[in-house]
Amino acid sequence: MFIIIFTEDLIRRNAEHNDSEIFSLEELSLHQQEIQKLENIDKWCQDLKILYLQNNLIAKIENISRLKKLQYLNLALNNIEKIENLEGCEGLEKLDLTVNFVGELSSIKILQRNIHLKEIFLMGNPCADFEGYREFVVATLQQLQRLDGKEIERSERIKALQNYPVIEQKIREQEKAYCLKRSKEKEEAERKLQEEEEKEKQKENRNNPGFNERSYTSIDNTIPYSLLQEKDNQQPALEEKKVSEKTPDELDKEFWEKPTLFTPESRLETHRYLVKQRKDKEKLSDRKKKQKPPRTLITADGRVLNINEPKLDFSLKDDEENNQIVLDLAVYRFMDTSLIDVDVQPTYVRVMVKGKPFQLVLPVEVKPDSSFAKRSQTTGHLVITMPKVGEVIVAKRKACKPVKNPEGNKLQEKKGSKEVEKLEVDPSKYSFPDVTNIVQEKKTTSGRIQAKPQVVPCAEDPDFEDNLEVPPLI
């Protein structure tokens, strides 16, 4: 049977409001955890003041007697049949035992030592149906102020104390009758449980045929053993066939509509049924997962694919200044880092996020050994830095000295220089030639200074440098 173990880790998971610290924990809620037994809680959480344990499968109150500071204990909707082990809870003020199976009403006498107890809930228990139930509780626990949500008046307590001997005798008789009834219910429940276990074993034997600890030789050699075995298993096989013909929905409906008594055993039976359903669903989901074909990350010819199964936003930056590639992956902010697995290869990077692959082909080859990953504490983003293979050398351009082609040298200097281009002073530099004066070598001018022809520098002079900022000579 599936049992939730009461562990320290279980308490820490439910103590997030106290930074998962259990030694100073004052309030703890462990409702609907399918807990069947209380263990070590009085050792780990001695400062507890409020403890919620409702809607579990706890059958006995135990291991909480050392909680001296406990003020409120909620054990509603459990399988408790007797009030016990609460004498040490000196500060207990409120006790909730709604809808349990308390039949020994006289067991409340142990609460007489809890002098601070002001309120108790026992509605929904078998003892609440006893004749004289309220009068007995009011007279027994004189420190009580409220019972089942109703205030206890002074006149009510005086009357209950006057009739206490008679009421106590009635309660004793009803308790004996209830105990006999419970013993029969327990025997019936044990018998049903054994029958269910035998059916399960027979079902497993049919599903796994083989040696079943029976002799394979018959006393009468004239009767084949196969016929004897077939005769023994014929009736159970027919019953199983009828059951197997029903759909899961029909079986589920039949279980919930079957009339049954409300007992601790019936609650456990329901719990076992729910656990079985849960396991069947898990097996079915595991089969579906196994049937699902694996994701192809690299093709048969060795080609790496780009995959984003977790559907995460990302950015890939080529940092040329630092000679590296940076991948920024927008991982879920509140996801645990242990669910992330990073694998950097020379030509691609792969990140597994909760088992789902994110794979990206890199534009250049990187160094896996020098790569590293960091995660932001504010945004949760995963940043992977991958240095490139080899170093990139950027050569600085230098001005070339003119050697052969001076005009080409000027154009190169103009392209290399980043200064603002200025207008030429000499208008004859880019003027068109006069066709009429081609033949004439010399021409006299009167009263006008003739511009001297521009001297073309010799390309053979190694020390010559043409500066455009210097105007031409006149």
TrEMBL record:
Gene3D superfamilies: Ribonuclease Inhibitor. It holds the Pfam family LRR_9. Residues 190-219 are annotated as: Disordered. Residues 130-148 form the U2A'/phosphoprotein 32 family A C-terminal domain. GO terms for biological process: epithelial cilium movement involved in determination of left/right asymmetry; flagellated sperm motility; outer dynein arm assembly; reproductive system development. Residues 207-219 have a biased composition (Polar residues). One of its GO terms (cellular component) is cilium. The keyword Repeat applies. The keyword Glycoprotein does not apply. Belongs to the tilB family. This is Leucine-rich repeat-containing protein 6.
